[in-house]
Amino acid sequence: MGCFWGAEKLFWETPGVTDTQVGYAGGRTSNPSYRAVCSGSTGHAEVVRVRFDPQVTSLEDLVVLALENHDPTQGNRQGADIGTQYRSVFFLPTSDDAATVERILDAYGKQLAQQGYGPITTQVVLMDQAGTGFWSAEDYHQRYLEKNPGGYCPHHGTGVCYVR
């Protein structure tokens, strides 16, 4: 979803989300720093770990929220944020969760194509196949936009709403 600051805010404001934590996943090194991730040398993506109450919201709802709030066709970038750390990716704990996300991506990809967008480049990765796992980002990144209300937040979707 690009920069994790705006993505985290999007999720923490969502009813049913009980906890968010920004960090790094999918890279080749343990416990990377923000500077190392931004250099592109570690292979990590900026990510948000989201915990939620399934009585209030669902994985499907959260995936749709994510897809509608960034451009999943842009590859290793979101707007002006360019680099592999900004790639569109879902890291998931189970193959059932991955299948749910793949189903939604397939349907949304068709909807985007009807509006003239290219193919979705979003990756779906099981956490146990993601290399080093999830590493929490430095404290100053956690709930960054709560601490810095006017901070940088580049998230913009395609304007194409997911039709269930």
The CATH fourth-level homologous superfamily: Peptide methionine sulphoxide reductase MsrA
CATH topology: Peptide Methionine Sulfoxide Reductase, Chain A
Main sheet makeup: 3 strands, antiparallel
Would you report the number of β strands? 7
In sequence order, what are the helices and strands, one letter per element? HEHEHEEEHEEH
Unreliable spans are none
Total of helices: 5
Give the mean pLDDT. 94
CATH class: Alpha Beta
Family: Belongs to the MsrA Met sulfoxide reductase family.
Function: Has an important function as a repair enzyme for proteins that have been inactivated by oxidation. Catalyzes the reversible oxidation-reduction of methionine sulfoxide in proteins to methionine.
Domain Peptide methionine sulphoxide reductase MsrA: 1-153
EC number: 1.8.4.11
Structure report:
The chain has about 160 residues and is an alpha+beta fold. It has a single domain, classed as 2-Layer Sandwich (Peptide Methionine Sulfoxide Reductase, Chain A). It is built from five helices and seven strands, in the order αβαβαβββαββα. The chain has helices at about 5-10, 35-40, 60-70, 95-115, 145; strands at about 15-25, 45-50, 75-80, 80, 90, 125, 135. Strands 2-1-7 form a three-stranded antiparallel sheet, with helices on one face. A two-stranded antiparallel sheet has the order 3-4. Strands 5-6 form a two-stranded parallel ribbon. The chain is globular. The two termini are about 20 Å apart.
